Amino acid sequence: MSTEEVLSAIVDGVAKGSHVVNLSWEAVFRVALLLLGGMATIRLLMKLVDRILKRSQSLSPLGTYIRAAVRVLLWCLLALMVAGSLHVDVTSIIALLSVAGLAVSLSLQNTLSNLAGGITLMTIKPFQEGDFVETDGVSGVVSTLGLAYTTFVTYDNKQIFVPNSQLSAAKIINYTALGRRRADLFFTAAYSVPTQQVFHALQQVLDSLPLVLADPAPTIHIEEYQASRIRYAVRAWAASLDYWTVYYQIQEGVREAFVHHGIDMAFDRMEVRLVEEKDENCPGR
Fold this sequence. Notes:
The protein is an alpha+beta fold. The protein has helices at about 5-15, 25-55, 65-85, 90-105, 110-125, 165-170, 195-205, 245-260; strands spanning about 130-135, 140-145, 150-155, 160-165, 170-175, 180-190, 220-225, 230-240. The protein has eight helices and eight strands; from the N terminus they run αααααββββαββαββα. The longest helix is centred in the first third of the chain and has 31 residues, at about 25-55.
């Protein structure tokens, strides 16, 4: 059954329920004109909606749902206008629809909240499918962005479904969007090791890794003077997809470089000195 047939059946039912059985030719002609004009207006408005959706990149993922919602709304308005032209009291119908809508919205509160969150995420686009994202204790690659749930796949191959209402209200960290990421690593060496020797060993490791980006160039600094050692900071840039590879390559390379250059990776230690005091009253002591 087409939409026009459904509308005609609704109008017939409303007319019979309101005891509007004997219609004059004038009323029939008025209803026919209203239906034709309404149908033409709906088609024009739907074309306008299609143009807006094609031009808007943020609304394009929601195109199917927006078209369906607008179409239903327009046909409902046309049905109410037809009922009003037949002198049917539409106030009671609107009140009934309002009460039914309220009851449905209360029963589907969580679902509607997730749908609203999904629409927000699709419109704002804080991430896309394939991005590595961290949010609200969950970190992983975005597998699917749906209307109600967003699916993450973690590095240990776990699939996590997060409600969009929770996701849209949380802080989102997108590690993929900017294309590159900086790895910050810290190493320690004893005070007895010359600083330039440590710098040279660390720089050799960075120069040997092709995945470390040359622009921005990696940097090496003294981070902190600690109780029994010096802490050095290494900051190197890599493509977002190569971050963890570069991170572990630097870790492994520094270990070998320090051994090769004889650099002591000092650990926390405490030096205790015992001083023997002489007793003047006892010369033998």
